[in-house]
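In the laboratory, one determines a bound structure by crystallizing the protein with its ligand and collecting diffraction data. In a computational setting the workflow is compressed into a single prediction: the sequence and the ligand go in, and a structural description comes out. We illustrate the idea with heme C.
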Amino acid sequence: MRLRARCRAAAVLAACAGAAAALVAGCSPGLPEPDSPGAQVLAVRCAGCHRTYAPQTMTIAMWEYQLERMRALYAQQGLPWLAPAEERTLREYLARHAGGR
Ligand code: HEC
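The predicted complex, in structure-token form:
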């Protein structure tokens, strides 16, 4: 009886761990084309302060807006903004994979 209760608790725990893992995976979907230059810019230049937002989580219009906000934030924090080539690569990557189309 006791043993069975413990087993059930273990089963519940295992189920919860699985759900938590699924939740985490759902919150940060992997980047598409992870080896592409655009994904690299996003992963390297945009992940210092918060998690990396996957391109498919926003429309391209929202991305344009967020990029301008981040540009202002970089300036405010005295951080160097992306080099022109980096920014172009990132914008092309975001446009290719943005959601809501
Ligand atoms: C200096 C730290 C810093 C860096 C570097 C940074 N961000 Fe941010 N970002 C923030 C902060 C702080 C917020 C939340 C406050 C806000 O929304 O103004 C934010 C918010 C965002 C949001 C909005 C998230 C939401 O749910 O509303 C997006 C999208 C985003 N950042 C994308 C980027 C991208 C793309 C880059 C790279 C070009 C980047 N960030 C680099 C600090 C940073």
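Residues 31-101 form a domain with the Cytochrome Bc1 Complex; Chain D, domain 2 fold (CATH 1.10.760). Keep in mind that any predicted model is a hypothesis to be tested, not a measurement.
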